Amino acid sequence: MKLVQRKGRLWGVSVAALMVSGWAMPAAAADLGGNCCADLEERIAELEATTARKGNRKVSLTVSGWVSENVIWWDDGSEKNTYVGTSPVEQSRFRFLGEAKINADWSAGYVLEIGVWGGNSSKTDQDNPDGTAGTPNSLSVRKSSWFLKSKTFGKLTVGQDSTATYHLLDDTDTTLTRNFYDAEGPPDYLQSFFLRDKAGNRIPSGSSSLKWGDALRGFNNSTPGDDGRRNIVRYDSPTFAGFNVATAWGEDDIWDVALIYKGEAGDFNYNARAGYGQSTDGFSTPCHGSGSSPDNALNCEWWGVSGFAQHTPTGLFVYAGYGKQHDGSNDPAIDAKILEKDSTTWFVQGGIEKKWIPLGKTNVFGMYRQDDAGSNVSGTGSIKTTGANINFWAVGAAQNIEAAESTLYLVYQHADGDVTVGTNSSATELSAMQQVIGGMKINF
């Protein structure tokens, strides 16, 4: 009898469960709708259309970059105009970064970075608003390299990439100004414009007229102390107590080394860099001449130091640096014509960067840079300039927009000085160049 009662209870519970399930299942089906699968397939198709595709499942792929365009009003004392172009400080670009874990310590990967020029603002002059022939509306391979990385032993990079002293003076800056007006910023915006004397004449007149970049020295963006991107083998050490070392070698022949520091103490953040480099490659590192007419007996050295400090509570910061380039040749005939072998630059930038409004950080700054430039001799020994003294000063402001990962900026820049043309015994005073630079950099 007890067994019959238990069976009866069990049967009753089973019937109740089936009835509840019967009611619930149609309700759930009704909620989903008859076209649930079609909607799901459509959503998957949308995601596939907007997703970067990979060649394999072992290597991650990150696509990133930015668009950085500016409007520049300029006045050289005799002529004035307004141009639109791509920023010469942080060129528009897109980047593919792939990386795969080998084990808990090691990983391998690659970098492909392509630069994009609309109007090339580093090549514009009084006659060419989009840049000189061959430079506007073009692509350039900025980086193409692979790497092996270890948390214990550091990172090895092979291919076209940054040398150890690439942006030695620039990358110490961690404020918004790094996006549009770093150490290389002052000459970047005017180096291709023709020089004028106080009377408004080009120097000298005719097809051989000099540009600001001819008077300035420094083989990378007219800034002594900085190197560029080259085909190199580079090693970066792990970081110890805020310090790490980078060194690189490549081309025929270039080598350099840098000591890098990043740290905090109390209410202050600090960054500092120091580096040295040497090159005998007149093609990829034209300390004089140009990449198309190099001195194959080149003997060029450069070094620089830079530092940055910011008081975190107030946002006040100071950023400064010094760079030097020694230009020589193992060809006695050319070396004798490089009358002023040393070129130097120093700069100081100060300001305040703080988040006063919900949009993001606001930056207000001022900068002064002074260049004592050495001789500019072509690869065949023709003397363009014996030396020059160029002064830059600027004031500006920037606003970061966090929600759009972008930075708006506005800068006023003034440049003047003097240049000694050829073997002249006296310097020619230059007509000042004034520029107002406004633009936006938006990351993706």
Give the helices and strands, then pairings.
Blueprint: H1 2-32, H2 36-49, E1 60-75, E2 80-86, E3 92-101, E4 106-117, E5 138-150, E6 154-162, H3 185-188, H4 212-215, E7 229-236, E8 243-250, E9 254-265, E10 268-279, E11 298-311, E12 316-329, H5 332-335, E13 342-357, E14 360-373, E15 376-377, E16 383-401, E17 406-421, E18 428-429, E19 433-443
Antiparallel strand pairs: 1-2, 1-3, 1-19, 3-4, 4-5, 5-6, 6-7, 7-8, 8-9, 9-10, 10-11, 11-12, 12-13, 13-14, 14-16, 15-16, 16-17, 17-18, 17-19
Identify the CATH class.
Mainly Beta
How many domains? The number is 1
CATH architecture: Beta Barrel
* Gyration radius, in Å: 30 Å
Structural class: mainly beta
Helix-residue proportion: 10-25%
Number of strands: 19
User: CA-to-CA gap between the ends?
Assistant: 77 Å
Q: What shape does the CA trace take?
A: globular
Find the CATH topology. Porin
Spans with pLDDT under 50 lasting ≥5 residues?
1-32
> CATH superfamily, please?
Porin
By DSSP (H or I, 4+ residues per run), the number of helices equals: 5
Order of helices and strands: HHEEEEEEHHEEEEEEHEEEEEEE
Question: Order of strands side by side in the largest beta sheet?
Answer: 1-3-4-5-6-7-8-9-10-11-12-13-14-16-17-19
| Estimated share of beta-strand residues | over 45%
Main sheet summary: 16 strands, antiparallel, barrel
Give the integer mean of the pLDDT values.
90
